[in-house]
Specification:
The structure is a single chain. The chain has two domains: 48 residues, no CATH class; 61 residues. The protein is built from eight helices and no strands. Helix content is 66%, strand content 0%. With 137 residues, the chain is mainly α. The longest helix is centred in the last third of the chain and has 24 residues. α6 crosses α7 and α6 packs across α8. It is elongated.
Length: 137
């Protein structure tokens, strides 16, 4: 832990608090820790969420931010704003994974709850407009 904390420019006590879930670290800190571990932030988060039957982490197939960016850019043009579509998909996914708990979904996306609720409302409005247009056809 000492080597990782030094490489990530984080105190050992802070790193222990983050690991135990007693502290919330900024994304930049988590990114430095992941790099110190020789990994990416996406891989570290995925590994933390997928325990195996013996309690150890299982490495899951994951993609990095460049691949996510490419996937967004390659979305069909008929979606309108591709970034908005990706944001809406992330909000819907977080709500599903967290059992429709808005606070937990906001934490999953590392967002303030109020900002998450605004984005959720916007996503739901867009979803209603799309459904209404589909029924009129």
């Amino acid at each position: 832990m000492t080597q990782v904390s030094r490489a990530a420019s984080v105190s050992t006590a802070e790193l222990a608090s983050i690991e135990a879930g007693r502290a919330r670290a900024p994304i930049a800190t988590l990114h430095r820790v992941a790099r110190a571990l020789g990994s990416t932030l996406v891989e570290v988060v995925n590994d933390a969420k997928s325990p195996s039957s013996n309690g150890q982490s299982v490495r899951t197939a994951s993609i990095g931010l460049p691949e996510i960016g490419r996937a967004i850019a390659e979305l069909p043009d008929n979606l309108g704003s591709k970034v908005d579509a990706a944001e809406s998909a992330a909000v819907v996914y977080a709500m599903k994974v967290m059992g429709d708990n808005q606070s937990a979904a906001a934490r999953l996306l590392c967002m303030e709850r109020k900002a998450f609720v605004r984005r959720l409302a916007r996503t739901r409005r867009k979803s209603k407009k799309t459904a209404t247009r589909a029924r009129k056809r």
